Amino acid sequence: MSTETTASVSTHILDTSIGRPAEGVAISLSARTGRDGAWAALGGSATDADGRCKDLPALPEGTTHVRLDFETETYFAKKQAEAQQDAPRVRDSATFFPEVTITFAVHPGEHYHVPLLLNPFGYSVYRGS
């Protein structure tokens, strides 16, 4: 697809509670055309050891809005289990936000890098470069 008629998206996640990339977080990508258009699931991937998701599906021509769904609950449950090892579990949930959904507008020909700064009880997102 031509980069002049489509936008592109990339993302990465930093777990700010440990100051390290968040590996193994599943991410789903959806897109729509127009503010009232129906969402179309395009597929997904997971973050690598560097917290990056390098193989998100391409956006269809005419995409105006993108939605990234980050499955954070599984990631934090795994981190909690690793930290506690043989210790008893102290909470039923390892994270306050079991998922994070980010929706943003895109314009043809532009690249959108969307970093997620994540910890068990909060998150921040911004348009990166």
TrEMBL record:
Reactions listed under catalytic activity: 5-hydroxyisourate + H2O = 5-hydroxy-2-oxo-4-ureido-2,5-dihydro-1H-imidazole-5-carboxylate + H(+)
Which Gene3D superfamilies does the UniProt entry name for this protein? Transthyretin/hydroxyisourate hydrolase domain (2.60.40.180)
The protein's superkingdom reads: Bacteria
Q: GO: which molecular function terms? A: hydrolase activity
Which segments constitute the Transthyretin/hydroxyisourate hydrolase domain? 9-128
Known InterPro entries for this protein?
Hydroxyisourate_hydrolase (IPR014306), Thyroxine_BS (IPR023418), Transthyretin/HIU_hydrolase_d (IPR023416), Transthyretin/HIU_hydrolase_sf (IPR036817)
Q: What is its EC number?
A: 3.5.2.17
What keywords sit in the KW lines? Hydrolase, Purine metabolism
Top EC class, one word: hydrolase
Q: What does this protein do?
A: Catalyzes the hydrolysis of 5-hydroxyisourate (HIU) to 2-oxo-4-hydroxy-4-carboxy-5-ureidoimidazoline (OHCU).
Quaternary structure and partners: Homotetramer.
| Similarity-based family | Belongs to the transthyretin family. 5-hydroxyisourate hydrolase subfamily.
Q: What is this protein called?
A: 5-hydroxyisourate hydrolase
Q: Which organism is it from?
A: Streptomyces amritsarensis
